[in-house]
Amino acid sequence: MSGRERQGDADLAAGDRGRIGMWLFICTEILLFGGLFLLYSVYRYKHQADFHAASLNLSRFDGTLNTLVLITSSLTAALAVHELRGGRTAKARLFIAFTILFALTFLTVKGFEWGEKFTHGLYPDAAHLLSLPRGQILYFGLYFTMTGLHAVHVIVGMGLFGYALRSMSRGRVDADHPIYVENVTLFWHLVDIIWIFLFPLFYLIS
To answer: Would you give the DSSP letter of residue 97?
Structure first.
């Protein structure tokens, strides 16, 4: 077996390990958010009227906008993988840059939304929120916990894509070594799917 063949086999084995590792990580994330979704379901069942009333304080427009932004970002991430596999590194980098831009847009919209909630005293331990029925307190507690945890994942995804751009510019990620971008894109699809569940749970109750 030639040195090139041995290197190819080593790269393939490393890629397989990387994919398996990413899928195991995704399973842990599903367990984490699955537990939160279960907790949400229990509290919503017990406080249906309060959850409905609390949801009226959220902007469906903002939630819908962010949903469209994330779905589009998943498309650009997938296109980046497609272009990278085809050896079109420049186009792949462009699509990754668009993905980062969409992620930043999502966080900006979410930041304005959170800011509005703070202005109206609808955040954990706020005096106004504590004066409301228990169900509404639980609703906003879950809202900030789950959307906040999701936002952390968005920030992490931005950092991973940023590192991908750096690695591609240095030649460490290319058509022969696409596993890093593939794994980051898989993680990003998970972030998108989680939001698709969060959106109706918090914004479309009414």
So the answer is: H
